[in-house]
Amino acid sequence: xxxxxxxxxxxxxxxxxxxxxxxxxxxxxxxxxxxxxxxxxxxxxxxxxxxxxxxxxxxxxxxxxxxxxxxxxxxxxxxxxxxxxxxxxxxxxxxxxxxxxxxxxxxxxxxxxxxxxxxxxxxxxxxxxxxxxxxxxxxxxxxxxxxxxxxxxxxxxxxxxxxxxxxxxxxxxxxxxxxxxxxxxxxxxxxxxxxxxxxxxxxxxxxxxxxxxxxxxxxxxxxxxxxxxxxxxxxxxxxxxxxxxxxxxxxxxxxxxxxxxxxxxxxxxxxx
Length: 272
Known about the structure:
Layout: H1 2-12, H2 19-45, E1 56-61, H3 70-82, E2 87-90, E3 96-101, H4 103-130, E4 137-140, E5 146-148, H5 151-196, H6 206-225, E6 239-240, H7 242-253
Antiparallel strand pairs: 1-3, 2-3, 4-5, 4-6
């Protein structure tokens, strides 16, 4: 099964010898997920509406109330969801999210999130234990004023750097998979034109049409069920510790994306 292949790639990253290998394993996992999403979307277009895989909703708990790092967990979840065919509605206290999407897409998001989020926690705690953040200053982005950093502030800046970088990797891998699908379509069309002499007009690819049709169906389903949850995690942070942010950025570039016991979860609360 495709989900098993994704999980296996994430687990293989645990034994990666270099950051480049770990990044390659993750990019491959996201590429497979996107290709699978495209193939399912195209298959659904050929099926009667009553026989298609139907959208569902699934709750994913990320933490307890008033935990500041909940928003960083949610940022990861949003990046995965948006790049794997899901719509998210967030609880007003930022402790959980509702995933709206096809069951296969939601399963992909849950397994990838369950593999990545615990690594962010572990790497963050290793960074804090190293003590290099001590003596750093937090910069207020509005006023430019500096103040001594706290452990909580160092953790928040590390998570910010981690999620920003990893979200970029997720998006880049998903876009590349879609571009590859479009190239394959163009290649098939070109071969057909050579054989028949027909001229194919440029336009939107079949993969894009199928994904757009599914997106509209999932969005309509989500709109019927969303209860007005508010997401504020994409706001520009008011303060940042540059050194801790860079440490999170570097950690996301070399993260081990998987591990024993981490694949297949995603519904329980993550460590505080």
